[in-house]
Design goal:
Layout lengths: L25 E4 L2 E3 L12 E2 L2 E2 L3 E8 L8 E8 L6 E11 L1 H8 L14 E9 L11 E5 L9 E5 L4 E2 L6 H21 L7 E4 L5 H12 L3 E6 L2 H9 L4 E4 L5 H8 L5 E6 L6 H7 E9 L12 H5 L4 E3 L3 H4 L3 H16 L7 E6 L3 H9 L6 E5 L5
Parallel strand pairs: 12-13, 12-15, 13-14, 15-16, 16-17, 18-19
Antiparallel strand pairs: 1-2, 3-4, 5-6, 7-8, 7-10, 7-19, 8-9, 9-11
């Protein structure tokens, strides 16, 4: 018996795999796949005829060894001309996501060392590969996912991963919301389809994805419970549509969820924390509830025995965004819903922190130290 990657069999034991995209072959054209080169920034020179194409000088964050924020180095790099099916963009805003930290630390394996981190950016097209239609110099585009390497002033991308940005959405908003927003879209509308009357539990409710989950689930008519670390974040979560913020540092999460739901439990738990929360997440579920594990900021969860699911006929899934945006149509649909909800006010994008791209190390340190809320955006330093 076989199933598609997004079949109804939702029990998955892929605790080493993120919901956010991981390095895999990327889409380069209609139905064509090509493996990424070892340098995820595509810092190579395409040779045409016998002559070497002139390189564009730029700067990027590079990781030569795994470790703490201090391994993020600001270095000069060379960026070649785009090849067939590719574009080059001058980056205007870069989204920071926890998956960037996972790669920097080696929790998830980068294709090679050194590498440039980053899975999300907005930029202006500065060059178009030969024979490519539908893209032109001056277009403003956003991308989220593969290829890794958005912490750069300039980058070469497969044209198929870039999507247009509505004029009503500015660059910082787009850079901060595309990856997180498509994650929220997949979690709420496809992995488990939240409907009016459902009750949901969102861990890290004041974080970048958590904030969007609260807002979107509220708009869908769900009762939203969220966990946060302090009173300030509880206030923010409440503003974002969380009906019942729980401060996990001073309250018993399971007891409070049972109190709020009159002992019934919740229909779905969205858990990006992992090791510190997954046991409580299971206890908070109603019979036939879904535990959607899409991150592990506190570490890799311990294995969950099948018997732990049997007591309430629970479902467990560890989804990957790339499986839900594998085609161009799926990508455009997901990104389109996100940008439409930003434009119509359903989603309020909280860009609470901006840093120069050259100071990415400080942004990582603050994110890991739980000193941030909402989204973080890096602004590329002026290309010299």
């Amino acid at each position: 018996m076989t199933h598609s990657p997004c079949s109804s069999i939702v029990f998955a034991r892929f605790f080493g795999q993120p919901l956010l995209p991981i390095p895999t072959p990327s889409r380069l054209g209609t139905g064509e796949r090509k493996t990424q080169t070892p340098s995820t920034l595509r810092l190579r020179c395409h040779r045409r005829d016998a002559a070497s194409v002139a390189m564009v000088k730029s700067k990027a964050i590079r990781v030569h060894e795994l470790g703490g924020p201090e391994v993020l180095r600001w270095e000069e790099v060379e960026v070649g001309e785009p090849g067939e099916g590719e574009i080059r963009i001058r980056t205007t805003a870069v989204g920071v996501n926890f998956i960037d930290i996972y790669f920097r630390k080696g929790v998830y394996a980068a294709p090679t060392l050194p590498f440039t981190p980053g899975m999300e950016a907005v930029g202006v097209v500065t060059a178009v590969g030969p024979g490519l239609t539908g893209r032109k110099v001056g277009d403003v585009v956003a991308y989220a996912g593969n290829p890794m390497g958005s912490y750069a002033q300039e980058q070469i991308l497969p044209a198929a991963v870039a999507v247009p940005i509505p004029p009503s959405v500015d660059h910082k908003q787009a850079a901060s919301v595309m990856l997180k927003g498509m994650t929220a879209h997949v979690l709420l509308r496809r992995v488990f389809k939240v409907e009016n009357g459902h009750t949901v539990l969102v861990h890290a409710a004041a974080g970048g994805v958590g904030s969007l989950l609260c807002q979107w689930a509220n708009a869908l008519g769900a009762t939203v419970i969220g966990t946060v670390s302090n009173q300030d974040k509880a206030a923010q979560a409440a503003q974002d549509g969380c009906h019942h913020p729980i401060i996990y540092t001073s309250e018993d999460v399971v007891a409070r969820v049972k109190e709020i739901t009159s002992g019934k439990g919740v229909n779905v738990v969205y858990d990006s924390v992992g090791k510190d929360t997954y046991k409580a997440s299971l206890e908070c579920l109603a019979p036939c509830g879904f535990l959607v594990s899409f991150g592990q900021s506190s570490g890799k969860p311990d294995p969950i025995p099948m018997s732990d699911l049997a007591s309430k006929s629970l479902f467990l899934t560890r989804p990957s965004l790339m499986h839900y945006t594998a085609t161009r149509d799926e990508l455009l649909e997901s990104a389109g819903e996100v940008f439409a909800n930003v434009a119509n006010g359903v989603l309020r994008v909280r860009v609470n922190h901006t840093y120069p791209l050259s100071e990415a190390a400080q942004a990582h340190a603050d994110l890991e130290g739980r000193k941030t809320s909402g989204s973080i955006v890096l602004i590329p330093d002026t290309v010299s």
